[in-house]
Design a protein that fits this description.
This protein is an alpha/beta fold and about 400 residues long. The chain has 15 helices and 13 strands. It has helices spanning about 10-20, 25-35, 45-55, 75-80, 100-105, 125-140, 195-205, 210-230, 230-245, 245-250, 270-305, 330-340, 355-360, 370-375, 390-405, and strands at about 40-45, 65-70, 85-90, 90, 95-100, 110-115, 145-150, 155-160, 160, 170-175, 185-190, 325, 375-380. The protein has a 7-stranded mixed β-sheet with strand order 1-11-10-7-6-2-3, with helices on both faces. Helix 6 (about 125-140) links the parallel strand 6 and strand 7. The chain is globular. The model has no long low-confidence stretch (mean pLDDT about 95). It binds pyridoxal-5'-phosphate (PLP). The site of pyridoxal-5'-phosphate has 15 residues, from helix 3 and helix 4.
């Protein structure tokens, strides 16, 4: 069975875990900053922890933090738990990002920051985002931080410029389901030396070393994830997943959609083992992204005009964290593809302001595009280990399924 995602691992990650020694976390921070052209990088146990720490360290409290209605719910959780209020903006198609035509109306004198995503790797128009935010700062006489959520878009480019550079800070998720992984982990980058220093001081005062048990379990976790996503094992894992929530727990870092909550270890320091795996993955980043872009352009060539459904935009600067298609009967398409040995993903099957925990902060505002996407999106496998023949087979099966439905 072809899994919906697969971390791009080989013996090198496992060797790196066993070769521990030296300040691996600092080395990973420096290499990460250098790779993505930032002056500073600060490591965390999760991407959401990086966001939470930044909001707290920069003194934002009781403010509105503007964010898209359609994104990973953990972003809203971090905002809410930082003592601020999420303020949602509906998204726009075809790129699934915040609708910039609606952003201006969401900004006011209480706005502390805007978090923009480049969801699924598709870059937002960051030039326009910066113009809208600057105009609001001038109008309200306040400072509004721009935070780039680059969990899907490490080095995605708009107009030739990395989206991570358009604003104050960018944060990244590094769990096993992301484009590159440090087993778990998160990172925040910035060119602002004072902000980096403040954040580092906040982290070192408020985060604690992880338990020895957690450290010892890491190699087993990585091995389990590696094995679980290998082809021979995947049929079994798929069956297991249908009958239990094991794989969900492995890949989603146990976030609960109906409760404002962060994992119990969200204030742990990044583990050195995680950093050593991250360092190896960083050296594979270019290859991983090139293979994802290749998969996306093959899908575009094989599927465009041959499906009654909406394909994602073909954008040179996209990182294709996910190749998204909108279909009317998602469950049926996924079932039909699974019976042909192909697992599709179903990422972000909710719209945050419609989750019970957030309905209150959205008032009676509606987010129709986000709501519709939450019921229609599926994603095709684009992981770096796919062969061209796999991609061709997935595309052919999808055309066949579309003709039947
Ligand atoms: C994964 C993800 C995050 C957070 O990363 P964690 O490391 O899981 O906390 C943030 N935003 C988006 C869009 C994500 O997919």
């Amino acid at each position: 069975m072809i899994p919906r995602l697969k971390p791009h691992l080989d013996y090198r990650e496992f060797a790196a875990m066993l070769r521990l020694g030296g300040p691996a976390v600092e080395a990973f921070e420096q290499a990460f900053a250098a790779k993505f052209g930032a002056s500073h990088a600060v490591a965390f146990p999760y991407g959401r922890s990086a966001l939470l720490a930044y909001l707290k360290a920069s003194g934002l409290r009781d403010r509105e933090i503007v964010m898209p209605a359609y994104t990973c719910s953990v972003v809203a959780h971090a905002v809410a738990l930082s003592g601020n209020r999420p303020r949602f903006v509906d998204i726009a198609l075809p790129d699934y990002n915040m609708d910039l035509d609606r952003l201006e109306a969401a900004l006011n004198e209480r706005t502390g920051a805007v978090i923009s995503t480049h969801l699924f790797g598709y870059p937002l128009d960051v030039n326009r985002l910066q113009e809208i935010v600057s105009a609001a700062e001038a109008r309200f006489g306040t400072r509004i931080a721009i935070i780039q959520d680059c969990a899907h878009s490490f080095d995605a480019r708009f107009d030739g410029r990395s989206v991570s550079k358009a604003g104050d800070v960018a944060f990244y998720g590094l769990n096993i389901s992301k484009m590159m992984t440090s087993i778990f982990g998160g990172m925040l980058t910035t060119d602002d030396a004072a902000a980096a220093q403040e954040l580092r001081a906040f982290r070192d005062a408020n985060f604690r070393p992880a338990s020895l048990a957690k450290q010892l379990m890491r190699p087993a976790y990585l091995l389990a994830a590696h094995t679980a996503f290998s082809r021979p094992a995947y049929r079994f894992v798929y069956w297991l997943q249908k009958s239990s929530s094991l794989l969900d727990r492995l890949t989603r870092a146990y976030h609960l959609d109906d409760e404002i909550h962060l994992p119990p270890d969200h204030l742990d320091l990044m583990l050195p083992v995680d950093a050593s795996v991250g360092l190896v993955q960083l050296s594979k980043y270019d290859e991983i992204i090139a293979r994802r872009r290749h998969a996306a352009s093959m899908y575009d060539r094989l599927l465009r005009g041959r499906l009654p459904w909406e394909l994602p935009p073909l954008i040179g600067g996209s990182t294709y964290s996910h190749y998204i298609i909108r279909v009317p009967d998602r469950a049926r398409v996924m079932r039909e593809m699974a019976s042909r040995g192909i697992q599709l993903g179903q990422l972000i099957e909710y719209s945050i302001p419609y989750l019970p925990a957030y309905r209150r902060c959205a008032g009676d505002e509606e987010f129709p595009v986000s709501l519709e996407c939450s019921t229609m999106t599926i994603n095709l496998p684009v992981h770096a280990s796919l062969r061209d023949s796999d991609i061709a087979r997935i595309a052919a099966c999808l055309v066949e399924v579309a003709a039947q439905i």
